[in-house]
Amino acid sequence: MARLLLAFIWLLHWLPLPVMAALGNGLGRVLYRLASSRRKVALRNLELCFPSKTPAEREALAREHFKWLTRSILERSYLWYASEARVESMIHVEGDPHLAERLQQEGRPVMWLCPHFVGLDVAGAAILICQKRPGASIYQAQSNPIMDAAMKRGRLRFGDAEIFPRSDSIKPLLRAIKQQGRGFFNLPDMDFGLQDAAFVPFFGVPAATLLAPSRMARTLDMVVQPVIAELLPGGRGYRVHFMDPLPGFPTADALADTAALNRWIEVQIAKWPAQYLWVHKRFKTRPAGEHGLY
Fold first, then answer.
1. Is 68 contained in some domain?
2. Is residue 133, in this structure, part of any structural domain at all?
3. 135, 183 in Cβ contact below 8 A?
4. Among residues 232, 189, 255, which one has the least CA distance to residue 45?
5. I need a labelling partner for 138 at 20 to 30 A (CA). Which of 13, 115, 166, 180 fits?
6. What Å distances lie between residue 218 and 17, 136, 186, 206, 253, CA to CA?
7. CA separation for the pair 86, 194 (Å, rounded)
8. pLDDT tens per residue across span 63-87
């Protein structure tokens, strides 16, 4: 089954991007109806984060989100199988993609901060294509070994990159940053439980949030540069925003840093609300004694 799925993904990469976008939008409408569990998660997240919106407004936003989400899934075929030149032609860069290269010459490590927008994989590819500094990241191993190998191969196609399983020790990652000069592609906004995390507000709701971005940036004296990939309508490609480094980040107060980081992510979501990953159970972990929200 996994091999058949990969064959289908490979076939998709021959489609023109506007055709793929139309296909993704159509399948997204279907997926919204069929994927009832994920639809309920998305609607619940939107209810928690946007209580002032009407149910109809939240449903419209969720429907739009499923279109972007489905597009992002299908368009991984380009990232996994299309030529580097073709992928690069789809990417429109805003900001400074060469900051990490200059900082490497100064001996400064870089953390690329990439929140969970649907274009997350595009952001990773753009980082490796647009600049020549080697990269590293952490990934969640897939239960199917064939899909796991395909995902790793697809994410490591461009440039010099290395990824480490989330279940492993952090020591190999730290060595890669300190000894090999690798930049760190960091995803700061998923609920991984309370280990190395704290409850800080996300749209006013306490959310288990990793303290690692602040702690690691302070320990390694890292410059933190946010990178967000925006999917453009009509299959016009991707706009990748290489943003200015976060000012005053990190500080000695990891908890305050983490709260500030969540507020910053809220501001970015306001720019592209339908492209944030609302199907993830962001509020799954709850404070002691509090009932689940899903």
1. yes
2. yes
3. yes
4. 189
5. 13
6. 41, 18, 14, 24, 10
7. 41
8. 999 999 999 999 999 999 999 999 9
